[in-house]
């Protein structure tokens, strides 16, 4: 989905980041700027860490090993090697590269936590990380490696590895290259890690959180698309918009439901097709659920997104690390790195994604079935029997819906103990986030097939004219895809509809109506 326009520098450390700021950095390559308050807080916390580094009493992450190896006290001359070894050994990801927008979000969110002054890193380390982000250098992060507990360890370690000039990155143009070369070209000196810094760089929920923010923004837009394609289907199937009336919706005051119903009412306003069957000659009493209940399902999805955004906002206001440096100088271990709050909502969002898609598939099927489409030709074909129309486009849609149902199975109910049973319960939130991203893409495909099919069905209702809003949607599609006619290669047409949805062009063309 489209990102925001590139804004001015995003300030770090002064206050929690907003979701819009995360999107701006992740998708629009906005720059970041460390506030003086952030640098002061980071410097103050570092003073406490340096005192602990010289103390006889061991402190986890400062003068000890990690995880199940925390019982070993590390002498001062080995502590820089300890932090470097931590990053190298934990950068153990596997699988394909993670998307650039996810990597930028991950780096930004870790940097924001460092800027709070609760992690104990040096100001110079925070400054170098900000410079790397602003230079457009994206560490290569792999698909697998996070259990969503003790932070997104392998993904964040890949980012930390780049910071010390090791591993691979992609530069601002997308070119794959060694991190050392990319830093040198940008005039950035690699970080030489000191006590606590390696641990602070990798012990956060930043990958999960970044993907939640991105997915919630995409789903907000896709719910608007779903309202539009549903309205087009209701219109094409000679359904009624009376069930979307505000007084009926008020009897069940879920906020998302009211929004979707109001949008569908506005999108169907002034439709000749709708007006053609409002009179006493219409014998239909009730529409099928996939038409009549669209606001209820889309609205429930909207309310689920709102809940997920609330969780994201709380996490954006958090400083996740272990141990943390408190305002009074204490350095305390904690469990705030556990990803359960994010994992649950990431899993939760996959459920309405599957259900909204399933309802769209039912509407599409209805338009293609001559027994239920109220006068439309079988499969919307030009010459049924010779032509198959949208028969197999529906197959593609059904295949994606089936996959979305599998992706709705929660990841967060699983846990595999690791680190010699020290980390004996994990959230699997990273896995929940990765499958949600696939689900969001799938929903876009499903809605594209409904859009393509409903547009053809509306054309076949001529000479009756659709509503101005739905007519605008059809007209936009016709700039890329021809109207009804003999069978054509459908895959490019589905891709064109997907592009109009994902680019934001479809919503832009209809925004003035609802």
From TrEMBL:
It catalyses: L-histidine = trans-urocanate + NH4(+). Pathway: Amino-acid degradation; L-histidine degradation into L-glutamate; N-formimidoyl-L-glutamate from L-histidine: step 1/3. Its EC number is 4.3.1.3. GO terms for cellular component: cytoplasm. The keyword Nucleotidyltransferase does not apply. It is found in: Cytoplasm. SUPFAM superfamilies: L-aspartase-like. PROSITE patterns: PAL_HISTIDASE. One of its GO terms (biological process) is L-histidine catabolic process to glutamate and formate. One of its GO terms (molecular function) is histidine ammonia-lyase activity. Keywords: Histidine metabolism, Lyase. CDD domains: PAL-HAL (cd00332). Gene3D superfamilies: Fumarase/aspartase (Central domain), Fumarase/aspartase (N-terminal domain). NCBIfam families: hutH, PRK09367.1. Belongs to the PAL/histidase family. This is Histidine ammonia-lyase.
